[in-house]
Amino acid sequence: GRALATDSATVETRPIGIDLAKTVGTDPAGCATTSVITVTNGTAVTYCYTVTNTGAYTLTRHDLDDSALGTLLDDFLFTLVPNTSTFVTMTATLTETITNSALWTAYTTPGPGAVADAQATVNVTPVQSEWLLYLPVMLQPE
């Protein structure tokens, strides 16, 4: 006689993914909690870019580009294991209202990568001129 055998296999996909949060505030020592801020002209603001590895692979190389501030990371070596986060800050002095976007790319070598984007807005108000008036004011007819 003949024997008939069957077998099955399950292939588990291991997705690659990241999440990016971009916040902005006036404290250069930490990350703010908001992505929109209003400041006066000439105020230094600190952008914070927080990336979280939401996938199942460890990501070891990172690129970060900002539409207004340029390239912040270029093939930066950093080990970001699944379910962990890291952040990068950048301080800039702004003279006009701006909404800028960030694009974070994380990948392994060799291997595929993940991309995430986020944006933040800084509303800049002009500095108010101050006038001093000394009293008493006396007007004399001519």
What does it look like?
The protein has 142 residues and is mostly beta strands. 0% of the residues lie in helices and 52% in strands. It contains no helices and eight strands. The chain has strands spanning 18-25, 36-40, 44-53, 59-66, 70-80, 85-93, 98-107, 113-125. Strands 2-8-7-4-5 form a five-stranded mixed beta sheet, with no helix packed on it. The protein starts with 17 loop residues before the first strand and ends in a 17-residue tail after the last strand.
Structural class: mainly beta
Question: Given the C-alpha coordinates, what overall shape results?
Answer: rod-shaped
Name the poorly predicted regions: none
Count up the helices: 0
Radius of gyration: 26 Å
- How far apart, in Å, are the first and last alpha carbons? 131 Å
List keywords for this structure.
single chain; 142 residues; mainly beta; five-stranded mixed beta sheet; three-stranded antiparallel beta sheet; 8 strands; 0% helix; rod-shaped
Summarize it.
With 142 residues, this protein is an all-beta fold. It is 0% helix and 52% strand. It has strands spanning 18-25, 36-40, 44-53, 59-66, 70-80, 85-93, 98-107, 113-125.
List the helices and strands and how they pair.
Blueprint lengths: L17 E8 L10 E5 L3 E10 L5 E8 L3 E11 L4 E9 L4 E10 L5 E13 L17
Parallel strand pairs: 2-8
Antiparallel strand pairs: 1-3, 3-6, 4-5, 4-7, 7-8
